[in-house]
UniProtKB/TrEMBL annotation:
Source species: Megalodesulfovibrio gigas (strain ATCC 19364 / DSM 1382 / NCIMB 9332 / VKM B-1759)
Task performed by this protein: Catalyzes the cyclization of GTP to (8S)-3',8-cyclo-7,8-dihydroguanosine 5'-triphosphate.
Domain Radical SAM core residues, every copy: 22-240
Subunit (UniProt): Monomer and homodimer.
Gene name in the database record: moaA
Family of this protein: Belongs to the radical SAM superfamily. MoaA family.
Name of protein: GTP 3',8-cyclase
Alphabetical UniProt keywords: 4Fe-4S, GTP-binding, Iron, Iron-sulfur, Lyase, Metal-binding, Molybdenum cofactor biosynthesis, Nucleotide-binding, S-adenosyl-L-methionine
The UniProt record lists the keyword 4Fe-4S: yes
Binding-site residues, [4Fe-4S] cluster 2: 275, 278, 292
Top EC class of this enzyme: lyase
InterPro entries on file: Aldolase_TIM (IPR013785), Elp3/MiaA/NifB-like_rSAM (IPR006638), MoaA (IPR013483), MoaA-like (IPR040064), MoaA_NifB_PqqE_Fe-S-bd_CS (IPR000385), MoaA_twitch (IPR010505), MoCo_biosynth_MoaA/MoaC (IPR050105), rSAM (IPR007197)
Length: 352
């Protein structure tokens, strides 16, 4: 067994997880895609030819997702992030959030449920999210300039996204903004994002562009290493590095801006991997378990969920067995350096 340095603390709880892989990593975080539909066409996510959408009959029902959440909770997962596609496109999402609360009410440590969204429908739902106990929302937002936003996403709704962020803040929901770092774009956006973080007391995180999907738009020309943005940020403001234990763990290197509440973070899967502290699993909206973002190996959970003689007990066994062989993503990345894409599927199909 290769034991890697544990450079992050568990997300949301210090309770031990039953899921420990062959590299000694404790798994306590699930990213669950509830739909592969999205109303944006971001060039880094869906920039190539359209990937066929998953047939509705193959998308997990909410009741099946509740069974999955129950299973992983029993195994020690304490943080669940709902993703897409765009999760706010899924009908009856408030009902689902309420059902999660009811299903996990008896846990020794409350389940931390968060959402990642493009923000376009957030304004109308912020009140419901707050009422249902959602305390954090991550908004994918790569530009504060309407024209650049349109060029990246293919839609003209930056105003809707900004109104959604404001609505969340008004309801007491804390915001993190995720921006994909792209050369020729993010350098110009950085000053505006720093001002945004300071004005709202929020955290803005830049994530290195990853070559995901067979038709990825990634290239060396548009790849921007985090260290270059960090150097630029240091010229604009005073940054104080925060310990990972003070930021909830996770892969981001986070800095406090000018001794205030605002934060700036950098996630560097390409230039400085964090595989030693990876604590997450991913399940796609059609019920496929992925133990590593960069690995195309998937484990089909939906057939077991829908089989009358199998069900959650078999799903639990599959997850326990699969996570033991959770690979090291940086090794997959290094092995494919001469190829454009790392994984065959686009991010919208994986769930981010």
């Amino acid at each position: 067994m290769t034991t890697l340095p544990n450079t992050a603390v568990p997300n949301g709880t210090d309770l031990p997880s039953r899921l420990v892989d062959d590299h000694g990593r404790s798994i306590n975080y699930l990213r669950l895609s509830i739909t592969d539909r999205c109303n944006f066409r971001c060039k880094y996510c869906r920039g190539g030819p359209e990937t066929p959408l998953i047939p509705h009959a193959d998308v997990l029902r909410y009741e099946e997702m509740l069974d999955l959440i129950t299973v992983v909770s029993e195994l020690g997962v304490r943080k669940v992030r709902l993703t897409g596609g765009e999760p706010l496109l899924r009908r009856n999402l408030p009902w689902f959030l309420g059902a999660i609360r009811e299903r996990t009410a008896g846990l020794e440590s409350p389940l931390d449920v968060r959402i990642t969204t493009n923000g376009s429908r957030l304004a109308a739902m912020a009140g419901d999210l707050a009422r249902l106990g959602v305390q954090w929302v991550n908004v994918s937002l790569d530009s504060l300039n309407p024209q650049t936003f349109h060029e990246i996403t293919g839609v003209d709704c930056l105003g809707d996204v900004r109104r959604g962020i404001d609505a969340c803040l008004q309801h007491g929901i804390r915001i993190k903004v995720n921006a994909v770092a792209m050369a020729g774009v993010s350098e110009a956006e950085l000053p505006g994002f720093i001002d945004f973080a300071k004005a709202t007391g929020s955290e803005v995180r830049f994530i290195e562009f990853m070559p995901m999907g067979e038709n990825s738009q990634w290239s060396e020309a548009n790849y921007l290493p985090s260290r270059l943005l960090l150097d630029q940020a240091r010229e604009l403001v005073s940054l104080t590095a925060l310990d990972r234990k003070d930021t909830g763990g996770g892969p981001a290197k986070v800095f406090r801006i000018d001794d205030g509440p605002a934060r700036l973070g950098f996630i560097s899967p390409m230039s400085s991997h964090f595989c030693g502290s990876c604590n997450r699993l991913r399940i796609t909206s059609d019920g496929r378990l992925r133990t590593c973002l960069f690995s195309d190996k998937e484990y089909r959970l939906r057939p077991a969920l829908r089989h009358p003689a199998l069900g959650p007990a078999t799903v639990k066994h599959i997850i326990e067995m699969a996570q033991r062989g959770k690979p090291l993503g940086y090794e997959i990345l290094q092995a494919r350096q001469m190829q454009q894409s790392v994984a065959r599927k686009q991010m919208s199909a994986i769930g981010g």
